[in-house]
Amino acid sequence: MNGIRSGMSIAGMKIGGGRRRFLFLLPVMIFLPYLLSVLELHQFSTTIDQQKKHGTKSDHLILGPAAGQGLQNRLQCQGTKSLNTTRHVASHSSKSGENVAFVTVFTIYNSSRENHENNKFSDIVTIGNSSYTKLERSMAILHSFIKFIQVTMPLSNVIILTDPASDLRVDREKVTVYPIQGEYSRDKLMLQRIRSYIAFLTARLEEYPTLAPDQRSHYIFTDSDIAVVDDLGQMFDEYSSFHLALTFRNNKDQPLNSGFIAVRGTTEGLRRAKEFLTEVLKAYTERYMKASRMLGDQLALAWVVRSNPSFDSRRFSKPVAFMEELNGASVLFLPCALYNWTPPEGAGQFHGMPLDVKVVHFKGSRKRLMLEAWNFFNASSNMDDMLCLILGSGRTKYDF
Asked: What is the pTM of this model?
């Protein structure tokens, strides 16, 4: 019996010990899947952080449905094929742009050039069959800007206002590099842009009496990350009485975009534009220096326009061109939807692209898309199909 009891006691001890081990392991078994999920999430997060750290981005566009399908007066697309025709690409025999010059501010920083020489194989981005460093990408965007103009307005000149210290060279026909002294640091570049515009207009006014009529031009001041996709010379004929033109959008705080300013190339147009921009510069320096790196110029533009007692800001709510007399200047307001259209980021552009869009502005993170668009057009020679590519580009990490 003792033996039996001993055996039973030993067995009971074994059973009890097993139960205790089971009870001890039970919480681990229950939470193990959650622990594995946390570990997997941590590994995924680490991978994403490493991608961000190393600047990993998509190397191609991700196309989605083009917005605006079925809407009247909107570009209709099937993939990258346009289903309706717009009025793009001037014939090389046309007089398009004969008396229109494009003016932009562009500079190369010494640090960019040094980094290019020291790190030629770092931070490389490949687009199509070409690979670019940061400096090369900036120059490629500038060249795309010029090439789009030379396709749509082949007789137009391009004038690049730059820092004399930047040693900028652009060896292309009908392109002039025009050095203007100033402060071109990244923090002050938007402020310097207005100063450079004023200096350029001052020089044009001084030389105007000495120029023959065929040497005089209208001027369109733009950012260098735009694509001119239709003839803008018609604007000066269609709206024959304005001194300068601005582009607007339905935005309460920033209704005016400074990336497109047109100036009529007459003595009065040049003078009025210079006076207007001088007021903008004054507002900029007195009110918006805290936003000098970005947005200060647009805030100053809006302030100068809205400070006129007779101006009705409600006119910005509808994308229809209108004229206004401001401090003696006849100012034409053109809708951004046509003259400064910006590709969407994500699903924000529900209404698509207007059929008669004239300027596409690749602001901010869209600059790589500008190079993609030029490469596509260069291969297809079809502007409308290229616009379908832009419209369907979706929210791709194509930024630099």
From this structure: 0.82
